[in-house]
Amino acid sequence: MRVGVLTGGGDCPGLNAVIRAVVRKGVQDYAYTFTGYRDGWRGLLHGRSVPLNIPAVRGILPRGGTVLGSSRTNPFTQDDGVARIRETLTKDEVDALIAIGGEDTLGVAARLHGEHGIPCVGVPKTIDNDLSATDYTFGFDTAVNIATEAIDRLHTTAESHMRVLVVEVMGRHAGWIALHSGLAGGANVILIPEQRFDLDEICGWVTSRFTSSYAPIVVVAEGAMPRDGDLVLKDAAAQDSFGHVRLSGVGEWLAKEIERRTGKEARTTVLGHVQRGGTPSAFDRWLATRFGLHAIAAVRDGDFGKMVALRGTDIVRVDLGEATARLKTVSAARYEEAKVFFG
Amino acid sequence: MRVGVLTGGGDCPGLNAVIRAVVRKGVQDYAYTFTGYRDGWRGLLHGRSVPLNIPAVRGILPRGGTVLGSSRTNPFTQDDGVARIRETLTKDEVDALIAIGGEDTLGVAARLHGEHGIPCVGVPKTIDNDLSATDYTFGFDTAVNIATEAIDRLHTTAESHMRVLVVEVMGRHAGWIALHSGLAGGANVILIPEQRFDLDEICGWVTSRFTSSYAPIVVVAEGAMPRDGDLVLKDAAAQDSFGHVRLSGVGEWLAKEIERRTGKEARTTVLGHVQRGGTPSAFDRWLATRFGLHAIAAVRDGDFGKMVALRGTDIVRVDLGEATARLKTVSAARYEEAKVFFG
Amino acid sequence: MRVGVLTGGGDCPGLNAVIRAVVRKGVQDYAYTFTGYRDGWRGLLHGRSVPLNIPAVRGILPRGGTVLGSSRTNPFTQDDGVARIRETLTKDEVDALIAIGGEDTLGVAARLHGEHGIPCVGVPKTIDNDLSATDYTFGFDTAVNIATEAIDRLHTTAESHMRVLVVEVMGRHAGWIALHSGLAGGANVILIPEQRFDLDEICGWVTSRFTSSYAPIVVVAEGAMPRDGDLVLKDAAAQDSFGHVRLSGVGEWLAKEIERRTGKEARTTVLGHVQRGGTPSAFDRWLATRFGLHAIAAVRDGDFGKMVALRGTDIVRVDLGEATARLKTVSAARYEEAKVFFG
Amino acid sequence: MRVGVLTGGGDCPGLNAVIRAVVRKGVQDYAYTFTGYRDGWRGLLHGRSVPLNIPAVRGILPRGGTVLGSSRTNPFTQDDGVARIRETLTKDEVDALIAIGGEDTLGVAARLHGEHGIPCVGVPKTIDNDLSATDYTFGFDTAVNIATEAIDRLHTTAESHMRVLVVEVMGRHAGWIALHSGLAGGANVILIPEQRFDLDEICGWVTSRFTSSYAPIVVVAEGAMPRDGDLVLKDAAAQDSFGHVRLSGVGEWLAKEIERRTGKEARTTVLGHVQRGGTPSAFDRWLATRFGLHAIAAVRDGDFGKMVALRGTDIVRVDLGEATARLKTVSAARYEEAKVFFG
């Protein structure tokens, strides 16, 4: 049995831990051999592979990124995409595929299996934690730790200068990183994409915080939007050096608006890619490792068209198709729960 | 409504986050007042309390330890223990108690409620993660992070000198910290209290690791024992400076035995109290905060005799009596899962 | 003897460590009493003080920011500034002042001592490390550690996606943070204010890095400028939401230019205030503590008009006037030394 | 020109950074080639080498340990040691040697150069920072950071349980790690090898600390000794499992003595190898990198028999013979300076 492995989409701490676990268990317990494909589905389209064996996965557990490289290439938007994938698999004598990725990568795996009969097992990866079929995805805990540490650091600066500090964190469609790091870091306002925000309300919290002689930290997910969304688009639009209209981040826009409305100095920190790089947290290494062990076990069982998922403390298998069907967003109740700390 | 709050047992990162969340929500949403009792049940026996209000909980979220102090005092082993507690509660006009602690502390709360009708709500705390009613307890993730970081650091020393490095971590009755940090840190042997270990097998893994030109890391829970348990007791017994027989740790004993049997140099690191001190991880702050919010909500609902618990990503209420009835240990299947990385 | 203490300018990890050391030694060894002034020189102008004794400095060693608050108020630009300061000192019966701050704060102390005979001792503070009289200032090591950790994290993202990552760090007039964190983090280009940069040269390094199948990290100090400086001003100017012209950061400008010229995707991370907040590194706590001990010893010796400074591993006293006379910038030789790692 | 490189003695964060800098500058600026010798002088005795070029040093900057391996082998205690080294150098066509190590390794280099005319340049390495010719050695700052973080964590446990916590840190002959981490961590007692300690005095500080309702942290270097040194030897001697007399650490002995004399519970943490492993701090990477650049420049200049050293912020060259002649210990004045924080 020869198994192909690929990683797709944005990079995420824990990818290497999955790869290592798949290979260790596959080789030792099942005597499988492996082929690693370069840069996600692109590697399968172009037949670009790397050897994947026990020496190749030594020492990669604590390393961020992915030794296989990644891309956002989608074979279904390419000419003869599926045929070329099938050709590569035949040529390489690969019997099954493990695809590690987010909604897009797993969506491709679901169709390759469902519509074309290619034996695929999926491993969910999204730093935003927004896949509904699993309690958590690896990478999320690392991102939350990094954002929380940044908030910890910003508290002292906020207070020494009595300034508003706005921290923009990742989360285009779901506010999990903002919610968890905001709660863990003791933020005074948390803004998420799931709930349009009201500038007057925010300025109320900010002012009330200053009243008690403390300075406020505002955590905002990059995808958060004001009640009147057009406002941002219009105000933040500015010509960049190429003469194109450019939309600057919500964090910077928010700081300016707070400054204008409250008269208090405000500053922004955009954490950006720092949140998704570097060594994974212990939780993410543990989760990624267990995902890897259970993915190769699914291959062994011939249980294709499935994705591994965390439920409580158990790893289960769910249908690949359903797995990516629905975005897991922050519920109104969970956001309400956090509001006791606002202001 | 006035609510008493106490923390009992060994300290654990996240205790202050619980206290803060209880008080913030209690004051703001329910207009409750609070009394903090010093040093666990001892404070109730002796009527030693501290004021607990919003200023008192400011800034404590990221701080380890407990601002209320702790002890292992059990009122049921004291003369008139229950009567004295009742007296304190009456004098202080306290209507309900929130007890944050482990098996012992919660066991007392269960009896005070069940046998004596004192309205109690429990919040589980055990750094060892060995309470069966909840997926996780706060403090555990912090301890696993610290142990994992230590293992990361030890890898380079092991390899530069081709030595065996034994790391003794917490876990007297359950091997969760050893299992999680061992998996996350890429240990080559993990030993837990749930499974008696075999020295020959360990030496086999150690030797096989050296064969592939790498040096082994052995993670051992403080409560792990060899197949022939008497062996440890006899060998490790040594007179201390007071002339008493003293049992040194399993880590040091193990290093000596491995050295003797394999001829390879072996060294021990005992992480000790470092694992339970300092600022909580983001996960632990988040979990402790949510436990606090839900505990005070249970008080509000008059839902006494309950303990808050994590199930998946939800906080639920379970019966205090059942909550502490059974130790949550590492199952044979979970330990077996990890063994693919041994050697 | 009563000694006044104040902190001025931007906040910096280690300020509290200085305050603690001054008070501990002053009280215990010399039986002095202390008055803390709020928000730098502003506190002296308005007679706003806080008690400063051993209980007040307990536990502040590891905390960032300053318990005394800070401001950029300059008494020489205020009506009757010096007279009001003298009045406050007389009213409070303060015999000497310890001023902890950067160029501005220490410049005021130098004039108050030199021109008005007020007994002052200075403690240098600049996160940018640009004071010529001392080998290092506290806060710098912490900032370099934070920037280096961010660069470490960005390497994996850069390589997984083959992107250029630009990291903008602090340093308006001196490139010490960029130089040290760039060297420590293994950056492929380091740009500092002392040396105008050449976009073509940068693009050459970037391209050469990609040629060897790696992705480049560019570290740029916020004050770095291209050979043709006007270019930045013109291009980056954009109207903000108030209609004012607003200069966006050099980091973002650089990423766009690199993208445009090399055709490679480029992203920017602006570390901002995260670099100056939070707990000080061990080196900064040690340096700040020793500065504090030696500042109060200078007061004891009646050695006013002096600033404490680090020379090798010794703390010495230098003239306050000279201390701030010259900016310590990165020499051409030191920058040249780092260039072997470019590209 | 072909240059040999070796690392000797105990491992130390920063060794890889030196190797990388030597090779980068040697190849790029001088067109040199390199031979890496395995396991210190042992590699030269047995002719065991590894290729050392730019690909070989990629990515090693942030990694602890040494890619060349290490040993404590001394060629002067081996039969024909010098002749065999000369033979290896001739066979490999190596024109000069860079030896990175501590007193022993550099002592060998000094004799090889001075007595046998072999062109050697030394780079100082000692985690204990006890070489007199240089202000700092790399590895020291990392060790101090790790010890300080541990002390930070232990404070909360000490206070929550009102216990004495003894932390044993590295330092057999010099107390630098204890002094710096003790000052940075806010320890209440610091004990170093340079000053015999008095148990009564220690117990006085411990008791005074409890009086002010805080719990004491005692930092002790592994080489610290009581006034009556024999006391430790006698008391701590205990038969190990092989029947040999075994000397347990000073930390554990101290905890027992404090417990016995003050009646307060005391616990010990022995940090051990964790202090010397893992990724180097930013300072150590910067220092190690600059040492490497200057060592290869010395080779270029034909300036053999020299060691690079840090003086203030400059790298200088000192005579190899003198460099290791004297141990740099903590002076009485520097220890006295720290005492204001005791108790």
Oligomerization state: homotetramer
Average pLDDT taken over every residue of chain A? 92
Largest sheet of chain A: 7 strands, mixed
Give me the CATH fold name of the largest domain in chain A. Rossmann fold
What ranges of chain A have pLDDT less than 50 throughout 5 or more consecutive residues?
A: 233-247
- SSE ordering of chain A: EHEHEHHEHEHEHEHEHEEHEHEEHH
CATH class of the largest domain in chain A: Alpha Beta
Strand-pairing-aware structural class of chain A: alpha/beta
Structure characterization notes:
Four copies of one chain form a homotetramer. Chain A contains 13 helices and 13 strands. The first copy, chain A, is α/β, with parallel strands linked by helices and 343 residues long. Chain A folds into two domains: 2-139 and 280-323, Rossmann fold (3-Layer(aba) Sandwich); 141-277, Phosphofructokinase domain (Rossmann fold), CATH 3.40.50.460. In chain A, the strands form three sheets. A seven-stranded mixed β-sheet of chain A has the order 3-2-1-4-5-12-13, with helices on both faces. Chain A has a four-stranded parallel β-sheet with strand order 7-8-6-11, with helices on both faces. A two-stranded antiparallel sheet of chain A has the order 9-10. In chain A, strand 7 (189-191), helix 8 (199-211) and strand 8 (217-221) form a beta-alpha-beta unit. In chain A, helix 1 packs across helix 11 and helix 6 crosses helix 7. Chain A is elongated and about 70 Å long. Mean pLDDT of chain A is 92; it is low at 233-247. Chains A and B meet through helix 1, helix 6, helix 7 and helix 11 of A and helix 1, helix 6, helix 7 and helix 11 of B. Chains A, B, C, D: This is Pyrophosphate--fructose 6-phosphate 1-phosphotransferase. Chains A, B, C, D: It is found in: Cytoplasm. Chains A, B, C, D: It catalyses: beta-D-fructose 6-phosphate + diphosphate = beta-D-fructose 1,6-bisphosphate + phosphate + H(+).
